[in-house]
Write a structure and sequence with these properties.
By secondary structure, this protein is mostly helical. It has two domains: 22-202, Orthogonal Bundle (Preprotein translocase SecY subunit); 221-407, Orthogonal Bundle (Preprotein translocase SecY subunit), CATH 1.10.3370.10. It has 19 helices and four strands. The chain has helices at residues 4-10, 14-19, 21-40, 50-59, 64-71, 75-78, 87-100, 104-110, 114-144, 159-186, 191-201, 204-217, 222-244, 281-300, 307-315, 321-342, 345-354, 366-400, 409-447, and strands at residues 147-148, 151-152, 246-252, 268-274. The protein has a two-stranded antiparallel sheet. It is globular and about 80 Å long.
């Protein structure tokens, strides 16, 4: 028999959506904010030659610049005021999360609830400013040394160019961070995730058009195009299924007396453990490390025949067996590493013991921690293999078939995860609106 929540969700329809005024306002606010963000990705940085920048980024598309340009929606290849995008904030967030497992002070803040969370968010913002300034200065120095067929990349090099670049790029990152926080509080979904999502999907129309144009010209056969569409659909279905998969551990609550003449009743709940607890962090870490050799080789202008540096750059290129083997191995390693940092079985076991809860058939304390660690390890094995397969398979196909766009596993994970999260929030708002309608009807009947 379905629960009340499931029955309520089944009654959600377009008429309910049309009446949910708060939800419509949130959707419009989110769309306007993302449109402002996309507009900023087309405002060029003052004092540069955009033609030289675009040529350089295109020649190093196989390195880390290509990945960052894809996440930023083309801001790096156009060298706009939002070229740093939200990456300094993400790096700062990861650093703060890692430090909470090392620093006793930050770990204590994490346990303080809302006040501690606000303090950690403030540390994350400070780290964002510091990282953005360092990266912006590095970009200004790199731009000064860059030149192409049409001349140098910087029109007026010098101290003022460095200063203006650092101020503008850092300000652009802070603006995106503020915009993401506004979307989270006043819009729909996680603002930071939606900013990255908007940058990735902005290139999809051009990729689809290029694919069909190649099919029209005969460069790609109809069979290949149909195979690409089938593969994309299969991969998305695979990601959705694995991202929704979880192990629900039964939790028993202490018996409570519901009524005077009624026997004590034991209540139960579930502790959900996701199959992929690490999310997209392992692929991002792994790809960042592996793309460094190709990026350094590209900056040095080395080819596959130019000694050790060129050879290293060639074997760590997309599609090479060495690259794919190392990529899969690093993803598996970071999946276990990040999951161990984010979930502490001993802490969870202690919290259950303090509340008087327990897992049926498992003694409280250390046995519960060992059981949770055992279950989480098995789940992480499957989750790590899932991440490795979803990230390595597209690279393997990309190396065998010439596609007009990059079909990456990390981008698929981000797009699918953000889409699922946004749809879940829309359903939550719709159900909350239905609850409000039911309460109003009940009050109206009570007054009659």
């Amino acid at each position: 028999m379905s629960s009340a929540i499931e029955q309520l969700a089944a009654n959600v329809n377009f008429a309910t959506f049309a009446k949910a005024e708060d939800l419509k306002k949130r959707i419009w606010f989110t769309l306007v904010a993302l449109a402002i963000y996309r507009l900023g990705t087309y405002i060029p940085l003052p004092g540069i030659n955009p033609v030289v920048i675009k040529e350089f980024v295109s020649s190093n598309a196989g390195g880390i610049l290509g990945i960052l340009d894809m996440f930023s929606g083309g801001s790096i290849s156009r060298m706009t005021i939002l070229a740093l995008n939200i990456m300094p904030y993400i790096s700062s967030s990861i650093i703060v999360q890692l430090m909470t497992s090392i620093s006793p002070h930050l770990e204590a803040l994490k346990k303080e609830g809302e006040a501690g969370r606000r303090k950690l968010n403030q540390y994350t913002r400070y780290g964002t400013v510091l990282l953005a300034m360092i990266q912006a200065y590095g970009i200004s120095v790199g731009l000064e040394k860059m030149s192409g067929a049409s001349g140098p990349a910087v029109l007026n090099p010098g101290f003022m160019f460095h200063l203006s670049t650092v101020v503008i790029l850092t300000g652009g990152t802070l603006f995106i961070m503020w915009l993401g926080e506004q979307i989270t509080s006043r819009g729909l979904g996680n603002g930071i995730s939606l900013v990255i999502y908007a940058g990735i999907v902005a290139n999809l129309p051009q990729a689809v058009f290029s694919t069909f144009e190649l099919g029209r010209q005969g460069a790609l056969s109809v069979v290949v195009i149909l195979g690409i569409l089938f593969l994309v659909a299969a991969v998305i279905a695979y990601v959705v299924f694995m991202e929704r998969a979880q192990r629900r551990i039964l939790i028993q609550y202490p018996k409570r007396q519901v009524a005077v003449n009624m026997p004590a009743v034991a209540q139960t709940s579930h502790l959900p453990l996701k199959l992929n607890s690490a999310g997209v962090i392992p692929p991002i870490f792994a790809s960042s490390l592996l793309l460094l050799p190709a990026t350094i080789s590209g900056f040095a202008g080395a080819t596959s025949t130019d000694g050790v540096l060129g050879y290293i750059g060639s074997i760590f290129a997309h599609g090479h067996p060495v690259y794919m083997t190392c990529f899969a191995s690093l993803i598996i390693f970071f999946a276990f590493f990040y999951t161990a940092l984010m979930f502490n079985p001993n802490e969870t076991s202690e919290n259950l013991r303090k509340m008087g809860n327990y897992i049926p058939g498992v003694r409280p304390g250390k046995p519960t921690a060992e059981y949770l660690d055992y279950v989480l390890t098995r789940l992480t094995v499957v989750g790590a293999l899932f991440l490795a397969s979803i990230c390595v398979l597209p690279d393997f196909i990309y190396s065998r078939v010439s596609l007009p766009f990059y079909f990456g596993g990390t981008t698929i994970l981000i797009v699918v995860s953000v889409t699922m999260e946004t749809i879940t929030q829309i359903q939550s708002h719709l159900m909350a609106h239905q609850y409000e309608g039911l309460i109003k009807k009940a009050k109206a009947k009570g007054k009659m």
